Amino acid sequence: MCFYGPVAFIRKILPAGTQKSCLLILGLDNAGKSTLTASLAEIFNGDSKEPGKQASEWSLTINNSRVQLWDINGELKNRQSWPNYYKKVKVLIFVLDSTDALRLSEARCVLCDVLMHQELDKAPLLIVSNKKDASGSLSMSTVIDLMGLDRLSARDWTLKECSTRSGSGVQDIVSWISEKINGNRK
Ligand SMILES: Nc1nc2c(ncn2[C@@H]2O[C@H](COP(=O)(O)OP(=O)(O)OP(=O)(O)O)[C@@H](O)[C@H]2O)c(=O)[nH]1
Ligand SMILES: [Mg+2]
């Protein structure tokens, strides 16, 4: 039997294993990953739900393609599960709480450990300096300094500032994701 249907519909009914792109969102607990995820779901799918405390899997439609998104809880006890996701990851986002100078050194070590995994070598990396609306938010140059990002070379990475609460800067993140997902399909 032949089936002729819109490409978007066919992609929608494909099982998760056949999906092309996987987007992983990591970062310390309280950084704002689930808040960002809810914004992305709303923008890409017109849908959102309350941020949860557990690892959560989403299916986004980006550029007519289905993208699997994993928003993983960042508490210490959950970080050991992170490498289980690395093999399939095409695009990586690491979220920072820009108001928490003390925890940026922890975030630096955690990011460093994540990037040691070779499965992620080819994944474009977006570091999100979140909570720019809050008082005490650190400047981009301070974040670069405290995170040691000037030493992060030999990979496709970029740093963007945003407030997932107010929505400021989120569109820029959306554009970055769309561009990278497009790049993966070429
Ligand atoms: N001021 C401000 N608060 C934010 C922003 N984004 C998230 N928050 C708050 O930060 C807290 C943590 O946000 P979550 O999105 O749950 O953080 P998470 O990174 O998913 O945390 P875990 O799931 O515990 O790893 C919540 O109280 C959010 O409302 C932001 O841009 N500005
Ligand atoms: Mg969360």
Structure characterization notes:
This protein has 6 helices and 6 strands. The protein is α/β, with parallel strands linked by helices. It has one domain: Rossmann fold (3-Layer(aba) Sandwich), CATH 3.40.50. It has a 6-stranded mixed β-sheet, with helices on both faces. Strand 5, helix 5 (140-147) and strand 6 form a beta-alpha-beta unit. 32% of the residues are buried. The model is unreliable at 1-18 (pLDDT under 50). The structure holds guanosine-5'-triphosphate (GTP) and magnesium ion. Residues 33-34, 51, 71, 73 line the site of magnesium ion.
Topology, please?
Elements: H1 7-13, E1 21-27, H2 33-45, E2 56-62, E3 65-71, H3 83-86, E4 91-97, H4 101-115, E5 125-130, H5 140-147, E6 157-161, H6 170-185
Parallel strand pairs: 1-3, 1-4, 4-5, 5-6
Antiparallel strand pairs: 2-3
The chain binds guanosine-5'-triphosphate (GTP) and magnesium ion.
Guanosine-5'-triphosphate (GTP) binds at residues 27, 29-35, 51, 53, 73-75, 95, 130-131, 133-134, 163-165.
Terminal Cα separation, in Å? 30 Å
Lateral arrangement of strands in the main beta sheet: 2-3-1-4-5-6
Radius of gyration: 16 Å
Taken from the alpha-carbon principal axes, the silhouette is globular
Strand proportion: 15-25%
CATH level-4 homologous superfamily: P-loop containing nucleotide triphosphate hydrolases
Biggest sheet architecture: 6 strands, mixed
The CATH architecture comes to: 3-Layer(aba) Sandwich
Could you list the spans in which at least 5 consecutive residues all have pLDDT below 50?
1-18
The computed structural class is alpha/beta
